[in-house]
Design goal:
Chain B: This is Pyruvate dehydrogenase E1 component beta subunit. Chain B: It holds the Pfam family Transketolase_C. Chain B: GO terms for molecular function: oxidoreductase activity. The structure holds two protein chains of two kinds. Chain A has twelve helices and eight strands. By secondary structure, chain A is an alpha/beta fold. Chain A has two domains: 316 residues, Rossmann fold; 30 residues, no CATH class. In chain A, β5 and β6 form a beta hairpin. The mean pLDDT of chain A is 95. Chain B folds into two domains: 183 residues, Thiamin diphosphate (ThDP)-binding fold, Pyr/PP domains (Rossmann fold, 3-Layer(aba) Sandwich); 129 residues, Rossmann fold. Chain B has twelve helices and 14 strands. Chain B has a five-stranded mixed β-sheet, with helices on both faces. In chain B, α1 runs parallel beside α7. Chain B starts with a strand and ends with a helix. In chain B, 57% of the residues are buried. Classes of the chains: A alpha/beta, B alpha/beta. At the A-B interface, α5, α6 and α12 of A face α3, α4 and α5 of B.
């Protein structure tokens, strides 16, 4: 039998190598010194927050939490490439993108704890709450993008999933709808090498995940997900291309999570070797970007220490605010099922509260 | 006033709502240029343009996902699932997403989506076209389920469904699409969701039905009257989630006996929920247990034996006789 597998090599984009040296000067995004420092600050914040969230989760002060250490460049770089009016459809790990897009931190903590207020995204913040069903956010993305297109708004819908998520039917359907309807949408895949314990090679025989865009007839780009400048560059291009009415794109960011899948009892030493872990730790996005900025005289050790304290304080304040949230009542849950409770729900509400029972 | 089939009444309702509310969008497989596989959307794309009425790729999860995304951005999508047997493809986007949008976001996002879909037996369709799967959504908190039984009500209920601020599943029985015509006013009217309709008055037993079983129940009531001189009160539920238990209880207070007739299998549909609510609220008015007239718990039958499997007027009469003898 002849080899009938389509050959496709998506572009692989890198700007900084592991030592913070510019490998591809043509692709250096035009960012101001202030923007570059902001990118670093956000990555530091995310690392600090992640460490804190893991501790809080162990102490029982947070509930569901999916660690993000290792994925900072990928998460921060892509959100930084969006405008505030662009709409995010996050998965459950995409908490940093939500936060930097305006989703208040204390509400993200409440979401983690299982409080309804956690999902009540403030008006004007263009973000859906985190999605638990892997792929569900991807088929909703064309709907958001179509709304923008129909209203003639120059806005973009961007959604996120992991490597495992690319095996879902909804992943394909979402990209294909966006392609068929030429919608302003960006599909951002964070390939962190493992879907819980299952290595990426077991998801698909495809050599890259980016090439899956071929099935939808849209551009697919692979990017070094440990390189914040490359992620920013590639996402910015995709977002602005979509904004200009030129259709959707898919981005695969090759990255790694240093921690467990979630804080719900996953132990990555069962399925990852120490060598693999160390290999990826050498690629740490913070180290390489810090070296780059230090080389340009834009970052220093003392500055980082000061910022770490600031980040800790932001987290503390958010926690305090989360603690102050009013307790939920089952009657309130009933009241948020529909605009107006059905007679059946009214009866059940009366049974619970003892008010107006019949 | 005009004589319309149920399918014409549905097209008419969509036409009115597309004209009235520019947030309304109609889409699905073959609903655009083709006008729908049953002509339910005939002429609408031509009248309102391909931005309002359009075809989608062939993927049910994608279609309802599209509706969900549009809804959280303020549109009022009216997607179609070509046959309700294909709903399994979109189950997460309905039960896992659409139904929960308001709740999980504390009211920040809502999902005013009306899913239209044909279903129902008696027209010899291939596999997975006729199945009565409404019960799956009676068990899904957050969605309303509406099943009209005639042209007049199809229009009024569909207009109410599209205007409802929450998701509605609007199921259209294929056998009722063109089986008869009825006077349907041209003007704008709605029939409230969640309210049943007494279609035949009687004093001896209550028959609760919906969809194509309403006319089966009415035929059975006539036959029962002729054969036994007993009068059945027939209730057309119209909305099967939430159930209008008050209308049912009021009827049982008069008749003291009830049966539920449905096209779905015994363990499916809405019948068990209806019986349970009657037990909770009308047990002291009952002279006999509430019985169900339904097909058996098999997979939906092969086309050649469909008519024997589906409940007939005679079967309903037999069930009425049984409940009188208890």
């Amino acid at each position: 039998m002849s080899q009938a597998v389509a050959q496709y090599e998506p572009p692989y984009v890198q700007v900084l190598d592991e030592n913070g040296n510019v490998t591809n000067p043509d692709l250096l995004p035009s960012l101001s010194d202030e923007q570059l420092r902001e990118l670093m600050k956000r990555m530091v914040f995310t690392r600090i927050w992640d460490q804190r969230a893991i501790k809080l989760s162990r102490q029982g002060r947070l509930g569901f939490y999916a660690p993000v250490a290792g994925q900072e460049a990928s998460m921060i770089g892509c959100e930084f490439a969006t405008q505030k009016e662009d709409f995010l459809l996050p998965g459950y790990r995409d908490i940093p993108q939500c936060y930097f897009h305006g989703y208040p931190l204390h509400q993200l903590f409440l979401y983690s704890r299982g409080h309804q207020l956690g999902g009540k995204v403030p008006e004007g913040v263009n973000c859906m709450l985190p999605q638990i069903i892997i792929g569900a956010q991807i088929v909703q993305t064309p709907g958001v993008a179509l709304a923008f297109k129909l209203r003639g708004e120059k806005r973009v819908a961007i959604t996120f999933t992991g490597d495992g998520g690319t095996s879902q039917g909804d992943f394909y359907e979402g990209m294909n709808f966006a392609g068929a309807m030429n919608l302003p949408a960006v599909f951002f895949v964070q390939n962190n090498q493992y879907a819980i314990s299952v290595p990426r090679e077991m998801q698909t025989h495809a050599k890259t995940l980016a090439q899956k865009a071929v099935a939808a007839g849209i551009p697919g780009i692979q990017v070094d997900g440990m390189d914040v400048l490359a992620v920013y560059r590639v996402t910015h291009e995709a977002v602005e291309r979509a904004r200009a009415g030129e259709g959707p794109a898919m981005i695969e960011a090759v990255t790694f999570r240093y921690g467990p899948h979630t804080m719900s009892g996953d132990d990555p030493t069962r399925y990852r070797t120490k060598e693999t872990q160390e290999e990826w730790e050498r690629k740490d996005p913070l180290i390489r970007f810090r070296k780059y900025l230090e080389g340009k005289g834009l970052w220093s050790e003392s500055e980082e220490q000061a910022y770490i304290e600031e980040a800790k304080e932001i987290v503390n304040q958010a926690l305090k605010q989360a603690d102050e949230a009013e307790k939920m009542a089952v009657a309130d849950l009933i009241d948020t099922m529909f605009a107006e409770p059905t007679p059946t729900l009214k009866r059940q509400r009366a049974e619970i509260t003892g008010e107006g029972a019949n | 006033m005009a004589q319309m089939t149920m399918i014409q009444a549905i097209t008419h309702a969509l036409d009115l709502e597309l004209a009235r509310d520019e947030r309304v969008l109609v889409f699905g497989e073959d609903v655009g240029n083709n006008g729908g596989v049953f002509r339910a959307t005939e002429g609408l794309q031509k009248k309102y343009g391909a931005d309002r009425v359009f075809d989608t790729p062939l993927a049910e999860s994608g279609i309802i996902g599209l509706a969900n995304g549009l809804a959280i951005q303020g549109f009022r999508p009216v997607p179609e699932i070509q046959f309700f047997g294909f709903v399994f493809e979109a189950f997460d986007q309905i039960a896992g997403q659409l139904a929960r949008t308001r709740y999980r976001s504390g009211g920040r996002y809502t999902a005013p989506v009306t899913i239209r879909s044909p279903f129902g037996g008696g027209v010899h369709t291939p596999e997975m076209h006729a199945d009565s799967l409404e019960g799956l959504f009676v068990q899904t908190p957050g969605v309303k389920v509406v099943i009209p039984s005639n042209p007049y009500e199809a229009k009024g209920l569909l207009l109410a469904a599209i205007r409802d601020p929450d998701p509605v599943i609007f199921l259209e029985h294929m056998k009722l699409y063109r089986s008869f015509r009825q006077e349907v006013p041209e003007d704008d009217y709605t029939i409230p969701l969640g309210v049943a309709n007494v279609v035949r008055e009687g004093k001896d037993a209550t028959v609760i039905a919906y969809g194509a079983m309403v006319s089966v129940a009415q035929k059975a009531a006539e036959q029962w009257s002729k054969e036994k001189g007993l009068e059945a009160e027939v209730i057309d539920l119209r909305t099967i989630s939430p159930i209008d238990i008050d209308t049912i209880v009021k009827s049982i207070q008069k008749t003291n006996r009830a049966i539920v007739v449905q096209e779905a299998q015994r363990s499916a549909g809405a019948a068990a929920e209806i019986v349970a609510q009657i037990n909770e609220q009308a047990i002291y008015h009952l002279e006999a247990p509430v019985l169900r007239a339904t097909p058996p718990d098999t997979v939906y039958p092969f086309g050649m034996i469909e008519d024997e499997w589906l409940p007939t007027p005679q079967y309903v009469v037999n069930t009425l006789n049984k409940v009188m003898a208890l």
